[in-house]
Write a structure and sequence with these properties.
Layout: H1 2-38, E1 45-48, H2 54-60, E2 64-68, H3 69-73, H4 79-90, E3 96-100, H5 117-133, E4 138-141, H6 144-147, H7 155-175, E5 179-183, H8 196-206, E6 211-216, H9 217-223, H10 227-233, E7 237-242, H11 259-267, E8 274-276, H12 282-297
Helix pairs in contact: 5-7, 7-8, 10-11
């Protein structure tokens, strides 16, 4: 009787061991998934601010700056003028990852009867070349003045012109190792490319890897875009900007919940950066970065 019990027990142990061994890949996958879930959602958090505020912003939690194309890259000024900004960057505790305010001169037009793509591209290549020297990565293409559609000009024609411009701009950006990210803007600021789906459609039509979409959560919320709209555009989204909806305040001031959007980013495997572009006092900056990190960690 004892030997029978021992035999059964031994068989049970062997069977249990075999089942455990068979289940190892599953358990390993679960462990890997758990470890992946613990990773920070964003590769880095930054803020739209000048180099003069870099030291303070670093103490608040920023890991990079979004600078101004006109002020930092100065495409309309000499190389000597830009060299002075490079000296400031060399002394900065934060890198410049991106530059916004892309096309500033009033005479440069992307669409409409006055569209002058050759002149736009001269400006653009100067910006790309200098961003590369600064070791930056993104040029944010909002530029409401340059791309707004004037009365009487067909929207379909504007879309054709914009795509044609992007097709020419892509190889120039690639040449200098930077990426142009087209930003959707709320209708009160611009009447062209107001929804993230519109931006995604035009970027897909342009068909160049160095022309992509910036998902600005502030403009998205103001325009009525949903997390599902973001999900539908994620194949071309490579950068994120953020601010609260009502007053464009930095995260944490009004208490906006960004987790539904962050959940989409997590589910689609986003691994890029996020930049604050909002209003706030010095005292609100550290809580803003903490709010982003907390909400991102909760999805």
């Amino acid at each position: 009787m004892k030997s029978t019990t021992r035999g059964v027990s031994r068989r049970a142990v062997l069977r249990t061991g075999a089942m455990a061994a068979a289940g190892l890949p599953f358990l390993t996958n679960l462990r890997v998934m758990a470890e992946e879930a613990k990773k920070p959602l964003f590769s880095a958090m930054g803020i739209a601010a000048g180099l003069g505020r870099a030291e303070f912003m670093k103490t608040a939690g920023a890991q990079f700056l979004t600078e101004s194309t006109g002020d930092f890259l100065v495409p309309d000024k000499s190389d000597d003028a830009f060299a002075k900004n490079l000296e400031k960057l060399a002394a900065s505790p934060l890198p410049v990852l991106a530059c916004n305010g892309f096309i500033r001169p009033a005479n440069l037009r992307c669409v409409g009867k006055e569209a002058n793509h050759d002149e736009v591209l001269v400006w653009a290549e100067a910006a790309f070349r200098r961003l590369a020297k600064a070791k930056g990565k993104f040029i944010v293409f909002g530029s409401s003045g340059a791309r707004s559609v004037r009365d009487g000009w067909p929207m379909e024609k504007a879309e054709e012109q914009f795509v044609a411009l992007l097709k020419r701009m892509g190889p120039l950006a690639e040449k200098h190792g930077v990426t142009v990210v087209v930003e959707q803007l709320q209708a009160s600021e611009c009447n062209f490319i107001n929804r993230i789906g519109e931006a995604a459609k035009l970027i897909r039509a342009a068909g160049h890897p160095n022309i992509r979409v910036l998902a600005d959560l502030y403009h998205m919320m103001k325009g009525g875009d949903t997390p599902q709209d973001l999900k539908a555009a994620m194949d071309v989204v490579v950068h994120i900007e953020i601010a609260e909806k009502e007053k464009r305040s930095v995260p944490g001031v009004a208490g906006d919940d960004f987790r539904p959007f962050f959940r989409v980013l997590r589910e689609t495997g986003y691994n890029g950066a996020i930049s604050i572009e909002g209003k706030g006092t010095n005292e609100q900056m550290a809580p803003a970065f903490a709010t982003i990190a907390r909400q991102a960690g909760e999805v």
